[in-house]
Amino acid sequence: MVFTEEVFLYYFLPLVLLGYFLIPVRKASGSGSSLVWRNAWLTLAGYGFYAWFEPWFVLPMMWTNVFDYVVGGWLGRDDLKQRTRNGLLALSICMNLGLLAVFKYAVFAQVNWNAVLHAFGHPGFEIFRIAFPIGISFYTFHSMSYIIDIWRGERPVRSFPDFSCFVTLFPQLVAGPILRYHLLAPQMHVREHKLDRFSQGAQLFMVGFAMKILLANPVGRIADEVFGMSSPGTLVAWWGTVAYAFQIYFDFNGYSVMAFGLGRMFGFELIRNFDAPYRSESITEFWRRWHISLSSWLREYLYFPLGGNRKGELRTYVNLALVMLLGGLWHGSQWQFVVWGGIHGGWLALERWMGKTSFYAWMPRILRIALTMVIVLVAWVFFRAENISHAIHHLGCMFGAVPAVAQTQLLAPSLWSPFPVLLMGLCAVLVAQPLQSYEWAARLSWPRLGISAVLFALAVATMYTQSFNPFLYFQF
Fold first, then answer.
1. Is 142 annotated as catalytic?
2. Which residue segment(s) compose the domain that 107 sits in?
3. C-beta neighbour count of 150 within 10 angstroms
4. pTM exceeds 0.85, yes or no
5. Could you read off the pLDDT of 197-218 as tens digits, one per residue?
């Protein structure tokens, strides 16, 4: 089930909202209110939402919930020795990473091992295919953050529905934002349910829905057409790469905005995932603005434990590169994602060496933004391409090293018709302006609500003209 499906809009969401607000809030014995039954309802909704993709996908997620709930409760005891606490932490991390290894990276490992064997003349082995549960990278990171936070001194969750709600909260379950337990834990017990917050959330959901249907999907077709060409011309290759940059931004940001809005409708305040990333003046700034929940998770749970910048300059550069390489591999079990992470990690290390700035910092701001965007676009080619060879070939087309094939030139004129040009221009204007949907929806007014409702209605109507097009980050 996805947010842009009839079953979600007309049945699932209304039913979950109705059940949630019909459940009474039980007053706790201490301060605040106990939301345990509402959390239990959201847990059931999360399982149902996830099972819609494939019922058996629920099993590894349920195992993660039960295992880490038990380990977290044990880890939170005051009478444990540090060695035992460290052992429990290692046990949980091994279990979570083991799930990722089996379901996400097993085929990748087999393929590469066979490549090594073939290089030495061995015929290799038959590849054992394993189905990939959607969103497993997200909920394992949620669960890992809980155990690490308990190990650091946070108190464990007493109620299983509260913990399970944190992991399976359906607005962010399959594509983020990635939640960190210590930031969301207080909201498991006390959160506000007010009409203005609900209205802001609904408005954000409508805006995010419009991003996905009216912007991401149409520019995605442009990107698909260009990347499907055997050898596009230089201008066409750049056009398709920019279209993909717009697609992944409005697709992922649209999902994040919808998730943020849905969370607010249920009283949660989730983390903002984007902050005008294509206005960045360096790669360092880009990662403060792009996929904020992932970059902050990697910084807090990987970069700092590796030593951060506390163990000398060389170690700092190695840590930055390693974190981004692993971040690239987190996105997908293919080498082009590792290359994508390596490009960003290399630039982050370079800019760190230059004092957290770029070598083009002396240029006018518009040129700093433009050069940063070129670096981001080059990296996006590896993210979008089918494999590394395809990415290198496409980059060759972008920089004029590969001549265009005559047949592709016959297809190119359709890319310059009025609708694609106007659409790309609209996307460029939207990514260039600083006002974000979060700020825009924060101030409720009838005109803004009217605009949101019109965009939402247009997007719903347009949804019926498009084939099923899931969010790009579902594959991660």
1. no
2. 6-25+33-191
3. 25
4. yes
5. 899 999 999 999 999 999 999 9
